[in-house]
Amino acid sequence: MSFETLKEYVTAHGQEHLIKYWPELSENEREKLSSEIRKLDLADTNEMFQRAINLTKVILEKIDDDLKPIPQAHYESVPGLSKAKIEEYENIGFEEISAGKVGVLLLAGGQATRLGFGHPKGMYDVGLPSRKTLFQIQAERILRVQQMAEERTGKEGKITWYIMTSEHTMAPTADFFKSHDYFGLSEENIVFFEQGRLPCFDFNGKIFLDEKNHLSSAPDGNGGIYRALKTQGVLNDIVKRGVKHLHAHSVDNILIKVADPVFIGYCKSKNADCAAKVVQKSSPSEPVGVVCRVNGYYKVVEYSELTDEAAERRNPDGRLTFSAGNICNHYFSSEFLLKICDYESKLKLHVAKKKIPYVDENGIRQTPSEPNGIKIEKFIFDVFEFAENFICLEVARDVEFSALKNADSVKKDCPSTAREDLLRLHRKYIREAGGIIEDKIDVEISPLLSYGGENLKDLVENEVFTISPFHLKSIQETVTNGVNGKH
């Protein structure tokens, strides 16, 4: 594209300031800037800004009559299910895993900046006895659930692991997996793809320059997964492999049951196209979004959007009426994903006012102290309203949810709480299998040994645990790493 054509293009869309410093740029810098501008459809970009701004102007009246909890027919709770029902769902899930029909969508784009880590969050080690990272724990859960499916069905199937990174985490994530020999998984069953980015705007819709030859942009939110699935060829891969069920979750939940056969089985048995795992809200004021129905559509209503009356409303049995806390743990049928990615552009846009560094009219890069513009992002759960058969599965928080978001100084959703939540759960598994362990003893159970408390009885029954910290390993780990025990 010649400079004249480029100038014509940006001017036609009111973004001519983007080439203001063209005369000062080297040939390479001009090529970089021109390439970034060409990649944007400025008509679309301007329309998106306008749509985002208009959406924020529409202040939704909080009409509680339009707000309804998930109907009972679309909601089940694992703690309330019989053993037989759980086994029924689990067997269906294992059949699908053994047939190679299950994939996992891992949202792993985040850098652990709040943790002061500076690397992809999946590479973080919370200080378990084994020193395993989040990526390793989740990889080993996939290996174990594949093994369990084969034991149950007699057929060996592979789970495909689709890992969404960001521009900055793609290379380090791929390198990390390679250097750890993919944690025992087949390289061909791990697919890395990259989340998209959206320009950052000032309040008038002008795209910021981050440098004279570089546009300012930010990741497009976890709802950017739909666009990325389509543009990066992942949807085609899902179809080619015959994957029918996708379990999507964020990387920072240390208790995640990856490719959970109970969840897969529940969704298949109900013929769901989209589903959410939820936990009971701990209190009316807990700052977590709630899965509910608004005007007949399934949505996640942010805690700030609930009136106090709605947040505190209770059922006759004393439970909160709006108790289904969203934990970014979802199911999609591949059919639903194929459909949704075609009208991804209809997804709601969320606007955040931010302090965005920019190059000012004098060519000097400024770092503002007050919000000076907006970042636009999409959320993964905004597709719920398009589902034809949406269902919810409530799970026990102490078994399936512990987020890692903050540094230890915050004392909540931090490395210490994640580590303690996992070790507490493992003590519970040991007791359920007949072992004797005090709360002060830290024993970690390898995911390769046990996915959810199974396979422990022969090892721990009547055993008294006194060594802390201790790592209870699988046979394959004891062969490669020496005896069971402390690292």
What does this structure look like?
By secondary structure, this protein is of the alpha/beta class. It is 32% helix and 20% strand. It is built from 15 helices and 24 strands. It has helices spanning 3-12, 27-39, 42-57, 83-98, 134-153, 170-179, 225-231, 234-241, 261-269, 308-312, 334-340, 397-400, 415-432, 457-460, 475-481, and strands at 67-68, 75-77, 102-107, 160-165, 190-194, 197-199, 201-202, 209-211, 214-215, 217-219, 245-250, 274-280, 290-294, 297-301, 324-333, 350-354, 358-359, 365-366, 373-377, 390-394, 436-437, 443-445, 464-465, 470-472. The strands form eight sheets. An eight-stranded mixed β-sheet has the order 2-20-12-15-11-3-4-5, with helices on both faces. The chain has a three-stranded antiparallel β-sheet with strand order 1-13-14, with no helix packed on it. The longest helix is centred in the first third of the chain and has 20 residues, at 134-153. It starts with a helix and ends in a 6-residue tail after the last helix. The relative contact order is 0.14.
